[in-house]
Amino acid sequence: MADRTATKAVHVGQPVGCGIERRASPRVELNVGVGFRSDTNFYTGFTCDLSEGGLFVATHMLLPIGTSLTLTFALPAGPEIVARGVVRWLRDPRDDSAEAVRGMGIQFESINRDDELLIREFMALREPLFYTG
What we know:
This protein is mostly beta strands. The chain is built from one helix and seven strands. The longest helix is centred in the C-terminal third of the chain and has 12 residues. The radius of gyration is 14 Å and the shape is globular. The relative contact order is 0.26. The N terminus is likely disordered.
């Protein structure tokens, strides 16, 4: 089993395929469908990357920063994960570049221990994303 206490540095710059990097925590690439619902609506999108603290959802349905929502997604060959999160930042390609993917950075606020462990195990088996700046 991989040593979960070891972390690797992430270099800030242009991420591969997902636009400008805004987080400092280690993350791995994850491209799966994700459902997210606020108090009044249900939306869908795709993840670009995942960290223990949250994920990026590529979607055209940008919610306001601070919006609480429930996320539903599955790791490859894994069970469905449900987490409560909050929108921490938005990316609109018109703000950065034509290469940026529109979407939202979501920080996990509440996730059960089993799902948190699944995310950690998934990340331990993959190389972190590195960016050059």
